[in-house]
Amino acid sequence: NLPIFILAIESSCDDTAAAVLKNDKILSNIVANQSIHNEYGGVVPELASRAHQQNIVPVIDMALRKANINKDQLDAIAFTQGPGLMGSLLVGSSFAKSLALALDIPLIAVNHMHAHILAHFIDEEGFDKPEFPFLALTISGGHTQIIQVNGFFDMKIIGETTDDAVGEAFDKSAKILGLPYPGGPLIDKYAQLGNPKAFPFTKPKVPGLDFSFSGLKTQILYFVQKNVALNPDFIAENRNDICASIQYTIVQILLDKLKLAVAQTGIHQIAIGGGVSANTGIRQAIKDGEKKYNWKSFIPKFEYTTDNAAMIGIAGYQKFLVHNFENAAVVSKARIEF
Ligand code: KG4
Ligand code: ZN
């Protein structure tokens, strides 16, 4: 059997990414971050699409060079169809279509949320692949979902957020503390130096497997405002403890729902994905679940958790194997059926 070479392109939000795969192995995985958004405290769609326009050719060029692959060796182009920002998605899909047409090779459309889950099937030394069925917790700036994964493209959402995503909960809490965007990684950094029980926050009461984070955000806002009124240096003096307490509460909210999902489905394999699964508190809690709750936990390599094209490539490879191709009329979708 000849190896399959796939070029994958991801441009759904504010990262321009390209990867080259040889079957289920990653030959290169390039991401260009857009620092332009930091000064605005969030992603500015107009600026994101413009930056994708600037970055896409050099990023793809670098991915091919690092993989030591000539474009004529490619067997297919995979791209992110959605969900995401329309102006960002269009840059990746237009480029993918044109290149597939020029090279006369198949075009593969990938659902970004499927890809976060399928990242677990990348062949990587020291990382096991889950077996079907398993439970996936996808946690990012845009999503918070528990998914029952029965097959590569047979997935069912069994729980999700009713308001903010968990990444937003991190980023908005960070903003309240005066930290720059995206604040999630900074909360994580300071949390490692603080006491998680210093400031107890209450967990929201949400039925079933669904989540809610907007109440927690308001609770943190009032807590900070009240204390800063008493002591203007409250944040500076307690930064690590506040961050540790916020992170601890968020981790407990996620853990509670995962335990319930395991009880309801009888499935003990837990895989995490999405940008927030880079969080050290969450990674530790999921890992500890192996001993505490008899889980088998799957935690991807860091570079495959935040937005990347390697995950688009592995999803594309699975579609290639079943010849699930698109014609050039395929459209980007800001929202997409799971
Ligand atoms: O998956 P991702 O890269 O993009 C989306 O599709 O949203 O996730 C980005 C989110 C941001 O909210 C960011 O603050 C959060 O992931 N994040 C973290 C950490 N690293 C990234 N949140 C908490 N702790 C981290 N270490
Ligand atoms: Zn993502």
TrEMBL record:
SUPFAM superfamilies in the cross-refs: Actin-like ATPase domain
Enzyme class: transferase
Domain Gcp-like: 25-313
UniProt GO cellular component terms: cytoplasm
Source taxon at top rank: Bacteria
UniProt entry keywords in alphabetical sequence: Acyltransferase, Cytoplasm, Iron, Metal-binding, Transferase, tRNA processing
Residues annotated for substrate binding in this entry: 138-142, 171, 184, 188, 279
Cofactor(s) in the UniProt record: Fe(2+)
GO biological process, one term: tRNA threonylcarbamoyladenosine modification
Catalytic activity from the UniProt record: L-threonylcarbamoyladenylate + adenosine(37) in tRNA = N(6)-L-threonylcarbamoyladenosine(37) in tRNA + AMP + H(+)
Textual note on the cofactor: Binds 1 Fe(2+) ion per subunit.
Example of a GO MF term: tRNA N(6)-L-threonylcarbamoyladenine synthase activity
Residue sites binding Fe cation per the record: 112, 116, 307
Localization: Cytoplasm
E.C. number: 2.3.1.234
Matches recorded under Pfam families: TsaD
PROSITE patterns documented for this protein: GLYCOPROTEASE
Function: Required for the formation of a threonylcarbamoyl group on adenosine at position 37 (t(6)A37) in tRNAs that read codons beginning with adenine. Is involved in the transfer of the threonylcarbamoyl moiety of threonylcarbamoyl-AMP (TC-AMP) to the N6 group of A37, together with TsaE and TsaB. TsaD likely plays a direct catalytic role in this reaction.
HAMAP family xref list: TsaD
Family: Belongs to the KAE1 / TsaD family.
Protein name: tRNA N6-adenosine threonylcarbamoyltransferase
Lineage: Bacteria, Pseudomonadati, Bacteroidota, Flavobacteriia, Flavobacteriales
Annotated gene: tsaD
